[in-house]
Design goal:
By secondary structure, the chain is an alpha+beta fold. The protein is built from 16 helices and twelve strands.
C-alpha cells in the first residue's frame, strides 16, 4: 500500500505540474492575442517567455517543453497564422527566424530552469535530512538519562537534555543560559565549582577533562557523578563548542564502598586468622621439637639401658656362669662319682658353655664393647661374622681398611642403623644376602645397605619417602637428625637400597676418619 500511495502521489504531482504549465501558456497566448490590435504581428512570443520560465523553473523541464511546444503552436495557429515561414520555398522569413530564436531561447531557459530546479530539490532534500537528523538528535539528546550539555566557549550552557534534569528535579531554565559551574547542580561547594570551571577552561583550549565529583539534586541530596568535559572541533580543527556529559555513579560508589569495607573486614579477619595459625603453628613446631627431643632422649636412654643391661649380663650373669663352670670342673676331679652323676655333670657343663655363649652374644648385640674400646670397624666385623656363622642371612661388608673412629656417638648411630636395616632385610625382603658399604669422601660419610629381595610395594615406598611408615623407619630418622644426616630409600623389583649420608663432624678431618682407601 505504501508503494501504491507513493506512486499515486507522484502521478498527482506530475499532473499538477503539467496542468500549471498548460494553464500558464494558455494565459500567455490569450494575453498576446488580446494585444494583437496594438502589436499586430510584432513580438508574437513576448508573453510566452514568462510562461516558459515559470514552467521550467517551478514545474520542471517536462512541463517547460510542453509549454514551449504549446506556445509555438499557439503563435503559429492563433497569433500569426497568415505569415509564411519561407519565401519561394527556400528563404526564411522574419517569422521563421523569430520561431527559431524562440525555440533556442526557450531551450536555454528550460535548461537553466532544470538546473535551478535540481539545485533547489537537492537543497530541499538536504534541508529535510538535516531537519530529520536534528529532530532525531534532539529526541535522543533530550530523552537520555545521562546528563548531556552543549556549552559555549565561555562555559555558558546552550543546550541541556531535559529528561536528566527532570530526574534531578530541575527545569531547563534552571540551567540553560547560565555558566556551567554556577548552575545549581554543584550546590554551594566552592572547590567543586572551581574544578568545573577549570574543566571548561581546559576544554575551550582543546583538552578533555574527566573526574568523579559530587553533585546535588534539587531536593538537596548529594550524589556522585562521573563527569567528562570534551572540546567539540569544527572541520578546521578549531574548538567552537564544549560538550559536557555525566552519569550518576552513586549506587556504584556505594557498592564499591561496601565491597571495600567487606574486603577490609575480610583482610582483618584473614590477618587475625593468620596470626592465630602462626601461633598454633609455632606451638606445633615447638611441640614437634619437644617430641623430637623426647624421642632422641628415649633413644639415648634406650642405648644407655642396652649398655647397662649388656654390662650386667657380662659382669653379673657371666661371672655366675663362670663360677658354675668352675664348680662343675671341681666335681669332675673327684674320683668314684657314679656314672649317672658324672654324665649329669658333663651335660651341665655343656649347657653352661652354651649359656655363656648366648649371654656373650646377647651382650654384644645389646652394646658391643668393641664399639667403645676399638671402634666401629672392629664391631661391624664381629657383628657380620656372627651373622654369617649363625646362618639365615649372608652379609658382605665393604669399608676402608682403617675406618677410624667418629666422635660424639656417631659410631653407635651407624651401628644401630645397620642393625635396623639388616633386621628389615631378614623380616620383610625374603632376601638371604645383604651388602653393607661404608665410605668417607668429599667431606661426607656414606652408608649403604642393600639386598636383592622382592622390593617394597610402590604405595609403601611413597609413604616411606614422605617420611611416614613404621616405628623402625621413624627411629632411624630420629637417630640421624642430631648429626644432620640424610636418608633415602630406593626400591625396585630387584631389591632395596637404603642410603645414609652424614657430614664429617667438625674437628674430625676426613684424613683422620679415613686413614686408607676404600675396599
Amino acid at each position: 500500500m505504501g508503494s501504491a500511495a507513493y506512486k499515486n502521489a507522484r502521478e498527482n504531482s506530475a499532473l499538477h505540474r503539467y496542468g500549471l504549465a498548460v494553464l500558464a501558456t494558455a494565459i500567455a497566448l490569450t494575453i498576446r492575442r488580446g494585444l494583437g490590435p496594438v502589436l499586430h504581428h510584432n513580438a508574437p512570443y513576448l508573453m510566452l517567455w514568462p510562461a516558459i520560465a515559470f514552467s521550467a523553473w517551478y514545474c520542471g523541464p517536462g512541463p517547460g517543453l510542453v509549454s514551449m511546444v504549446m506556445g509555438a503552436a499557439g503563435v503559429w495557429l492563433w497569433i500569426v497564422p497568415t505569415v509564411p515561414l519561407f519565401i519561394d520555398g527556400s528563404a526564411v522569413t522574419n517569422t521563421g527566424v523569430g520561431l527559431a530564436a524562440f525555440l533556442v531561447m526557450s531551450s536555454i531557459i528550460i535548461a537553466m530552469g532544470a538546473l535551478a530546479r535540481t539545485r533547489e530539490l537537492n537543497e530541499r532534500a538536504l534541508a529535510a535530512e538535516k531537519s530529520e537528523a536534528t529532530s532525531k538528535f534532539k529526541a535522543v539528546f533530550n530523552q537520555s538519562t545521562v546528563f548531556a550539555g552543549i556549552l559555549a566557549l565561555d562555559g555558558t550552557v546552550q543546550e541541556v537534555n531535559r529528561l536528566n534534569l527532570e530526574l534531578c528535579g530541575y527545569k531547563t531554565e534552571d540551567v540553560a543560559g547560565k555558566l556551567f559551574w554556577q548552575t545549581p547542580l554543584w550546590g554551594i561547594a566552592d572547590d567543586t565549582r572551581k574544578a568545573i570551571r577549570d574543566a571548561c577552561d581546559r576544554a575551550s583550549s582543546g583538552r578533555s577533562f574527566r573526574r568523579i565529583t559530587p553533585y546535588w539534586w534539587a531536593d538537596g541530596s548529594e550524589h556522585i557523578a562521573d563527569l567528562s568535559v570534551h572540546p567539540i572541533l569544527d572541520d578546521h580543527g578549531s574548538v567552537f563548542l564544549i560538550h559536557a556529559t555525566g552519569s550518576d555513579v552513586t549506587e556504584l560508589k556505594r557498592i564499591e564502598d561496601s565491597y571495600r569495607r567487606l574486603a577490609e573486614a575480610l583482610e582483618l579477619q584473614v590477618r587475625e586468622r593468620t596470626q592465630e595459625l602462626e601461633v598454633r603453628n609455632s606451638e606445633v613446631i615447638e611441640q614437634a621439637a619437644m617430641l623430637r627431643s623426647l624421642s632422641q632422649r628415649l633413644l639415648m636412654a634406650q642405648d644407655e639401658e642396652r649398655r647397662r643391661v649388656a654390662r650386667e649380663l657380662h659382669d653379673s650373669a657371666g661371672q655366675i656362669v663362670t663360677a658354675l663352670t668352675l664348680s662343675l670342673q671341681t666335681m669332675r676331679q673327684h674320683d668314684g662319682l657314679p656314672p649317672k652323676v658324672s654324665s649329669g655333670v658333663e651335660a651341665c657343663d655343656t649347657l653352661l658353655q652354651q649359656l655363656s655363649r648366648d649371654i656373650r652374644t646377647m651382650s654384644y648385640l645389646l652394646h658391643p664393647p668393641m664399639l667403645d674400646e676399638i671402634g666401629l670397624s672392629a664391631a661391624l666385623q664381629w657383628y657380620v661374622s656372627g651373622l654369617n656363622e649363625r646362618g639365615g642371612l649372608t652379609v658382605s661388608l665393604a669399608m676402608p681398611d682403617n675406618l677410624g673412629r667418629f666422635a660424639r656417638g656417631l659410631d653407635l648411630v651407624l651401628f644401630r642403623l645397620i642393625q635396623e636395616c639388616l633386621t628389615n632385610v631378614y623380616r620383610h625382603s625374603s632376601s638371604r644376602t645383604a651388602t653393607i658399604r661404608i665410605d668417607v669422601r668429599d667431606g661426607r660419610i656414606h652408608l649403604d645397605v642393600a639386598d636383592d629381595g622382592r622390593g617394597i610395594a610402590p604405595q609403601k615406598l611413597r609413604e616411606i619417602q614422605r617420611e611416614g611408615s613404621g616405628v623402625g623407619m621413624q627411629g632411624m630418622r630420629e637417630r640421624i637428625r642430631p648429626f644432620n644426616g640424610e636418608m633415602n630409600v630406593l626400591s625396585t623389583a630387584e631389591g632395596t637400597t637404603v642410603k645414609f649420608t652424614f657430614p664429617v663432624p667438625e674437628g674430625e678431618p676426613e684424613a683422620d676418619a679415613l686413614a686408607s682407601g676404600v675396599l
